[in-house]
Amino acid sequence: MKNIPNERRDFLKKTLAGSALLTVGGILPGFSPKSYAKIIGANEKVRVGVMGVNSRGLALASNYALQPNCEVVSISDVDSRAAEKCINTVNDIQKSKPANTPDFRKALENKNMDALVIAAPDHWHAPAAILASKAGKHVYLEKPCSHNPHEGEMLIKAAKKYKNVIQMGNQRRSWPNVMAAIKEVHSGAIGRPYFVKGWYTNNRASIGVGKETAVPSWLDYELWQGPAPRRAYKDNLIHYNWHWLWNWGTGEALNNGTHMLDLMRWGLQVEYPNRVTSSGGRYRYKDDWETPDTQIINLQFDNNTAMSWEGRSCNGRTNEGSSVGVIFYGETGSLQIGEGNTYTIYGLDNKVIKEVKNDFVIDPRNKMNPSQGLDALHIQNFFDAIKKGTPLASEIVGGHQSTLLAQLGNIAYRSEGTLHIDSTNGHIKNNKEAEKLWKREYQKGWEPTI
């Protein structure tokens, strides 16, 4: 843990004690299996089910299975091929086969399951989390926590009513050097921070123009759509392109922007903005893609600070040498958090004052995702919150607040105007057209309720 300030090191010792000090494949250097076994509660496994395992969910299921204090007991996916692949992968890791439960609602009936991990499409995030809460399960919910602002507020009410743990999957909240970087911002390393910019760049291909066709035999399309109003199946929709269609997805702003907006809000120590604007469009290709492929979201706050996020889905030119990141600008310097577990502090003369590189040990056996070891810290924080009452790195109130920043940006874009916001609760003021986008329409019979 070199390069981590003493106070941050002490904090990590307390909040990541014992089981949290794990890589995805075993124990961190200095922690032997024998010493780990002595930790109170180390052998009490948290039993989880995973919903949505085609891509991100497969990575999550693998990561959970790799945790010594966890057992994946159920896999739920509307794609029978994805479910089979994930079940075999998990079985290879933990040497016990999780149940194949295509409908996650059936999995929630299992009294021996402690938590549900949700990595389904965005339109299912909040409704599934609410159903899990009602069933007495804890929830690990991938970002964004909701498809629209109203659902985010419903999640907060659900957690309050059912008193369960709901952790949003903005994993950087648990990455040690990112935590240290935010601590530097808060402690005055760059003076008073007053502006921060974030970005995401990629070079995504066109999704083309889909053709209506028969639903494949391996797909339960009715359950996949779930709470969303029904649309005909097209051959370019599943598995990823739904991100760019408003009926199911939320665009790049919530797909990747949520991560950076969360760091920006965390660093500036703000909750809700007072003013939001957004510009952009679908510029690169003419196809079925509805959300912006190029977008800028600007937000202002009551404490005389502002932030700006830029998304470029179809042009991968990096910003500041990084495809994703944030820069905090302050009165005496700036601080950049890069793609990984790194940060750099610059003076006003642009000279490097301090550079912190990633020193976290990644298990070489993990071939799926190099950040899995870091993400395991977020998972262990989730477990500690369940078993010990440890504060969450990303509880649902903060998760909603960060998700809302991106949602307000999308609403400003779609309503083509400036949003004036009540900074006490994030609600839109005096704009009936924009307020229509606060909620969504649901398929009859699938409406989420608390």
UniProtKB/TrEMBL annotation:
Task: Show where the Gfo/Idh/MocA-like oxidoreductase bacterial type C-terminal domain sits.
Answer: 211-446
Q: Which InterPro entries match?
A: Gfo/Idh/MocA-like_OxRdtase_N (IPR000683), Gfo/Idh/MocA_oxidrdct_glycsds (IPR050463), Gfo/Idh/MocA_OxRdtase_bact_C (IPR043906), NAD(P)-bd_dom_sf (IPR036291), TAT_signal (IPR006311), TAT_signal_bac_arc (IPR019546)
Entries under Gene3D superfamilies matching the protein:
Dihydrodipicolinate Reductase, domain 2 (3.30.360.10), NAD(P)-binding Rossmann-like Domain (3.40.50.720)
Output the superkingdom of the source species.
Answer: Bacteria
Q: Which is one Pfam family of this protein?
A: GFO_IDH_MocA_C2
Which residues belong to any copy of the Gfo/Idh/MocA-like oxidoreductase N-terminal domain? 46-169
- The name of this protein is Gfo/Idh/MocA family oxidoreductase
Please name the taxonomic classification of the source. Answer: Bacteria, Pseudomonadati, Bacteroidota, Cytophagia, Cytophagales
